[in-house]
Amino acid sequence: MIDVTCAIILWEDKVLVTQRSEKMSLSLKWEFPGGKIERGETAESCLHRELMEELNIQVKILRTLSPSSFDYGKFSINLIPFLVNYLSGEIILAEHETYKWLSRNELKDIDWAPADVPILEEFLKLNI
Ligand SMILES: Nc1nc2c([nH]c(=O)n2[C@@H]2O[C@H](COP(=O)(O)OP(=O)(O)OP(=O)(O)O)[C@@H](O)[C@H]2O)c(=O)[nH]1
Q: Are 43 and 126 in contact (CB under 8 A)?
Protein backbone atom coordinates (compact mmCIF):
# COMPACT_ATOMS: atom_id res chain seq x y z
CA MET A 1 0.00 0.00 0.00
CA ILE A 2 1.46 3.37 -1.04
CA ASP A 3 0.68 6.40 1.15
CA VAL A 4 -0.12 9.43 -1.00
CA THR A 5 -1.10 12.91 0.21
CA CYS A 6 -3.36 15.25 -1.71
CA ALA A 7 -4.66 18.78 -1.22
CA ILE A 8 -8.08 20.32 -1.68
CA ILE A 9 -6.78 23.84 -2.26
CA LEU A 10 -9.27 26.61 -1.53
CA TRP A 11 -9.06 30.14 -2.91
CA GLU A 12 -12.13 32.38 -2.56
CA ASP A 13 -14.98 30.05 -3.63
CA LYS A 14 -12.87 27.88 -5.95
CA VAL A 15 -10.89 24.64 -5.67
CA LEU A 16 -7.71 23.83 -7.61
CA VAL A 17 -7.74 20.60 -9.60
CA THR A 18 -4.95 19.20 -11.78
CA GLN A 19 -5.08 16.88 -14.78
CA ARG A 20 -2.50 14.09 -15.05
CA SER A 21 -0.48 14.21 -18.26
CA GLU A 22 -0.52 11.59 -21.01
CA LYS A 23 2.87 10.33 -19.81
CA MET A 24 1.69 9.71 -16.24
CA SER A 25 -0.22 6.67 -14.98
CA LEU A 26 -4.01 7.31 -14.82
CA SER A 27 -3.41 9.40 -17.89
CA LEU A 28 -5.61 12.52 -18.27
CA LYS A 29 -7.56 11.79 -15.08
CA TRP A 30 -8.18 14.73 -12.75
CA GLU A 31 -6.84 14.67 -9.20
CA PHE A 32 -6.15 16.76 -6.14
CA PRO A 33 -2.43 17.58 -6.39
CA GLY A 34 0.01 15.84 -4.04
CA GLY A 35 2.18 12.76 -4.14
CA LYS A 36 3.84 9.84 -2.45
CA ILE A 37 5.13 10.13 1.12
CA GLU A 38 8.89 9.54 1.23
CA ARG A 39 10.68 7.64 3.97
CA GLY A 40 11.08 9.71 7.14
CA GLU A 41 8.62 12.34 5.96
CA THR A 42 5.38 13.37 7.67
CA ALA A 43 2.21 13.59 5.59
CA GLU A 44 2.20 17.37 6.14
CA SER A 45 5.78 17.90 5.00
CA CYS A 46 5.15 15.65 1.99
CA LEU A 47 2.18 17.79 1.00
CA HIS A 48 4.16 21.05 1.23
CA ARG A 49 7.06 19.52 -0.74
CA GLU A 50 4.87 18.09 -3.50
CA LEU A 51 2.88 21.30 -3.94
CA MET A 52 6.13 23.26 -4.23
CA GLU A 53 7.68 20.72 -6.66
CA GLU A 54 4.60 20.20 -8.84
CA LEU A 55 2.94 23.62 -8.73
CA ASN A 56 5.35 26.12 -7.12
CA ILE A 57 2.78 27.14 -4.50
CA GLN A 58 2.58 27.51 -0.74
CA VAL A 59 -0.50 26.62 1.29
CA LYS A 60 -1.78 26.70 4.86
CA ILE A 61 -3.14 23.37 6.11
CA LEU A 62 -6.58 23.69 7.74
CA ARG A 63 -7.54 20.06 8.51
CA THR A 64 -7.50 16.51 7.19
CA LEU A 65 -10.43 14.62 5.65
CA SER A 66 -10.93 10.83 5.69
CA PRO A 67 -8.25 8.79 3.87
CA SER A 68 -9.40 6.85 0.80
CA SER A 69 -7.93 3.42 0.04
CA PHE A 70 -8.14 2.18 -3.51
CA ASP A 71 -6.84 -0.96 -5.23
CA TYR A 72 -5.71 -0.14 -8.77
CA GLY A 73 -4.75 -3.80 -9.39
CA LYS A 74 -1.04 -3.27 -10.03
CA PHE A 75 -0.80 -1.25 -6.80
CA SER A 76 -2.97 0.03 -3.94
CA ILE A 77 -2.93 3.52 -2.53
CA ASN A 78 -3.98 5.12 0.71
CA LEU A 79 -4.84 8.67 -0.31
CA ILE A 80 -4.64 11.14 2.60
CA PRO A 81 -6.50 14.40 1.90
CA PHE A 82 -5.86 17.80 3.44
CA LEU A 83 -8.09 20.85 3.21
CA VAL A 84 -5.79 23.84 2.67
CA ASN A 85 -5.89 27.54 1.87
CA TYR A 86 -3.85 28.81 -1.07
CA LEU A 87 -1.26 31.26 0.29
CA SER A 88 1.28 32.29 -2.35
CA GLY A 89 3.22 31.45 -5.48
CA GLU A 90 2.37 31.71 -9.17
CA ILE A 91 1.32 28.29 -10.47
CA ILE A 92 4.05 26.70 -12.61
CA LEU A 93 3.20 23.15 -13.72
CA ALA A 94 6.10 20.69 -13.54
CA GLU A 95 4.32 17.47 -14.56
CA HIS A 96 0.60 17.99 -15.07
CA GLU A 97 -1.21 18.53 -18.36
CA THR A 98 -3.23 21.46 -17.03
CA TYR A 99 -5.07 22.84 -14.00
CA LYS A 100 -8.36 24.58 -13.29
CA TRP A 101 -9.93 26.53 -10.47
CA LEU A 102 -13.46 25.09 -10.22
CA SER A 103 -16.55 25.95 -8.19
CA ARG A 104 -18.12 23.24 -6.03
CA ASN A 105 -20.75 22.51 -8.71
CA GLU A 106 -18.18 22.12 -11.46
CA LEU A 107 -16.15 19.60 -9.45
CA LYS A 108 -18.72 16.86 -10.12
CA ASP A 109 -18.34 17.09 -13.89
CA ILE A 110 -14.68 16.12 -14.41
CA ASP A 111 -13.18 12.65 -14.92
CA TRP A 112 -11.62 11.90 -11.50
CA ALA A 113 -8.99 9.32 -10.56
CA PRO A 114 -11.15 6.68 -8.80
CA ALA A 115 -9.42 7.04 -5.40
CA ASP A 116 -10.45 10.70 -5.29
CA VAL A 117 -14.20 10.14 -5.60
CA PRO A 118 -14.95 9.43 -1.89
CA ILE A 119 -12.79 12.44 -0.95
CA LEU A 120 -14.70 14.69 -3.32
CA GLU A 121 -17.99 13.41 -1.87
CA GLU A 122 -16.88 14.14 1.70
CA PHE A 123 -15.70 17.62 0.69
CA LEU A 124 -19.00 18.43 -1.01
CA LYS A 125 -20.89 17.54 2.20
CA LEU A 126 -18.84 20.05 4.23
CA ASN A 127 -20.43 23.37 4.95
CA ILE A 128 -17.71 25.59 3.47
N1 LIG B 1 -1.06 13.08 -6.26
C2 LIG B 1 -2.16 12.36 -6.37
N3 LIG B 1 -2.04 11.07 -6.73
C4 LIG B 1 -3.17 10.35 -6.84
C5 LIG B 1 -4.44 10.93 -6.61
N6 LIG B 1 -5.39 9.98 -6.82
C7 LIG B 1 -4.74 8.85 -7.17
O8 LIG B 1 -5.25 7.77 -7.43
N9 LIG B 1 -3.38 9.07 -7.18
C10 LIG B 1 -2.35 8.07 -7.50
O11 LIG B 1 -1.40 8.04 -6.46
C12 LIG B 1 -0.09 7.90 -6.98
C13 LIG B 1 0.68 9.15 -6.61
O14 LIG B 1 1.75 9.25 -7.35
P15 LIG B 1 2.55 10.59 -7.60
O16 LIG B 1 1.70 11.59 -8.23
O17 LIG B 1 3.34 10.92 -6.41
O18 LIG B 1 3.63 10.01 -8.50
P19 LIG B 1 3.73 9.63 -9.98
O20 LIG B 1 2.51 9.92 -10.76
O21 LIG B 1 5.02 10.22 -10.37
O22 LIG B 1 3.92 8.11 -9.77
P23 LIG B 1 3.74 6.95 -10.80
O24 LIG B 1 4.67 7.33 -11.90
O25 LIG B 1 4.15 5.77 -9.99
O26 LIG B 1 2.29 6.94 -11.18
C27 LIG B 1 -0.24 7.75 -8.49
O28 LIG B 1 -0.30 6.39 -8.80
C29 LIG B 1 -1.58 8.40 -8.74
O30 LIG B 1 -2.20 7.88 -9.86
C31 LIG B 1 -4.54 12.29 -6.24
O32 LIG B 1 -5.61 12.86 -6.02
N33 LIG B 1 -3.36 12.96 -6.14
A: no
Please give the domain boundaries of the chain with CATH numbers for all domains: 2-125 (3.90.79.10)
Atom of ligand 1 nearest to the CA of 75: 28
Please tell me whether residue 13 adopts helix, strand or coil conformation.
coil
Q: Count the Cβ atoms, other than its own, within 10 Å of residue 68.
A: 21
- In angstroms, what is the span from residue 100 Cα to ligand 1's centroid? 18
Q: How far is the CA of 79 from the centre of ligand 1 (A)?
A: 9
* Burial zone of 61 (CB within 10 Å; 0-12 exposed, 13-18 middle, 19+ buried): middle
Q: What is the pLDDT of residues 27-84, one digit of tens each?
A: 999 999 999 999 999 999 999 999 999 999 999 999 999 999 999 999 999 999 999 9
- The CA 57 to ligand 1 mean position distance, Å, reads 18
Which stretches of the chain are assigned E, i.e. beta strand? 2-11, 14-19, 30-31, 34-36, 58-64, 68-71, 76-88, 98-102
CA torsion through residues 63, 95, 54, 9, sign: negative
Are 47 and 82 contacting, i.e. CB atoms less than 8 angstroms apart? yes
